[in-house]
């Protein structure tokens, strides 16, 4: 596992997604970026907490992701911080994802933006179902029990 972490650098992480959704499946997709967006990502500045992915005109797009303007670029070459960004997915995968979104009531939630070992910006998408309040409480209860159990075992052994 540490070997995989060495191969890529996480730029933005949506930790809230695992709290609000059951993540059923994940998929790595490419993302089309402008030059100043890549520079801003390499500086570690991005937010995907409020973003989501969805179809538009037969393609898959990332909506509402915030990549701030790059300060070193002149104003005429800078990008719009919350613009739609096209995602690169194989047609068969996209058709499968969109059919699940329409039929089963799931949503596509971005989990991470990172640079892979080749230096390309990638987005990890999660196929997610929303949690109800009782589900969130149950998850918190399980997490607390696992923490307490580990503490008890560590103290006894």
What does this structure look like?
It is a single chain. Helices cover 36% and strands 31% of the residues. The longest helix has 24 residues. It has a single domain, classed as Beta Barrel (Small Protein B, Chain: A), CATH 2.40.280.10. It is an alpha+beta fold and 157 residues long. A hairpin with a 2-residue loop joins strand 3 and strand 4. A 7-stranded antiparallel beta sheet has the order 1-6-7-2-5-4-3. The protein contains 5 helices and 7 strands, in the order αβαβαβββαββα. The model has no long low-confidence stretch (mean pLDDT 83). Keywords: Cytoplasm, RNA-binding. It is found in: Cytoplasm. This is SsrA-binding protein. InterPro entries: SmpB, SsrA-bd_prot.
CATH uppermost class: Mainly Beta
Please, what is the average pLDDT? 83
Low-confidence stretches: none
Annotation field: number of helices: 5
Cα radius of gyration in angstroms: 18 Å
How helical, in percent, are the residues? 25-40%
Our estimate of the beta-strand percent is 25-35%
Here the CATH topology equals Small Protein B, Chain: A
Pattern of helices and strands: HEHEHEEEHEEH
Q: Kindly report how far apart the N and C termini lie.
A: 26 Å
SS elements, strand count: 7
Total individual domains: 1
CATH architecture: Beta Barrel
Class inferred from helices and paired strands: alpha+beta
TL;DR of this structure?
This protein is an alpha+beta fold and 157 residues long.
